[in-house]
Amino acid sequence: MLLEVKDASVNYQKVSAIRNITLQAPASGIVTIIGGNGAGKTTTLRAISGLAKLSGGEIWFDGQRIDRLPPEKIVARGIAHVPEGRRVFPDLTVEENLRTGAFLRRDKVQVAADLEAVFQRFPRLRERRTQFAKTMSGGEQQMLAIGRALMAKPRLLLLDEPSMGLAPVIVEEIAVIIEEISKQGVAVILVEQNAELALELADHAYVLETGDLVLEGKAKDLHENDHVRRAYLGA
Ligand code: ATP
After folding, report:
1. pTM score of the predicted model
2. How many whole angstroms separate alpha carbon 201 and alpha carbon 59?
3. Does the CB atom of residue 37 touch ligand 1 within 6 A?
4. For 51-82, how does the pLDDT look when each residue is reduced to its tens digit (9 = 90+)?
5. Is 89 helix (H, G, I), strand (E, B) or coil?
6. What secondary structure, in 3-state letters, does 123-181 show?
7. Whose CA is nearest to atom 19 of ligand 1?
8. Whose CA is nearest to atom 17 of ligand 1?
């Protein structure tokens, strides 16, 4: 397994956000974490990327323990995080935003090649490379946020609610992009409230409810699960 979260708990002061969560991501494919508001999905991703401190448990990446490392060391190991609400730098241009994703990298020639690859994947970002990020549409900002994360050359990409607030046609576009990224060998952990989308894209799925892991399994099995259908798929 590329990533192993073992028995992880996070507290915010007295609030217990996640309790004894155990989950895994293999070196390729898409794993999804679904659940309602406040279930602990964002907290789980923040724990993996070092932004939330564990109060218990361990996180291992590529055979090494990472839960005591600062976020920039975790990025350098190969985990990139696209946060909820696609926080791009509003007053930087598209290209400047993309370059911030590579700030830890010293391999300048390879960075230039990766910038070119991102522009190939997202032609709209190339067209808008000198435009300020704040003037981009929601879908374009989501593409920019994903492009910026790819500039870190991750082995594991954490995506927090990439479909949030986007029109259905843009959501479809983002879904295709996520599949392509996965096919090129980057492991993906996708957090979504849109369970239909998440279960369609993912190979394996975890269900969080108020901080507890309540179900896990193959995404296609969970799609047929009665509880999942009633609680998350509107059946
Ligand atoms: P959503 O989809 O609504 O973002 P989520 O599943 O991502 O939900 P989290 O954001 O991880 O859930 O929140 C889990 C719990 O932790 C919630 O009860 C939330 O109120 C609490 N929480 C999250 N961040 C903080 C914080 N910085 N301080 C205090 N409590 C927090």
Report:
1. 0.95
2. 25
3. yes
4. 999 999 999 999 999 999 999 999 999 999 99
5. coil
6. HHHHHCCCCEHHHCCHHHHHHHHHHHHHCCCCCEEEEECCCCCCCHHHHHHHHHHHHHH
7. 38
8. 38
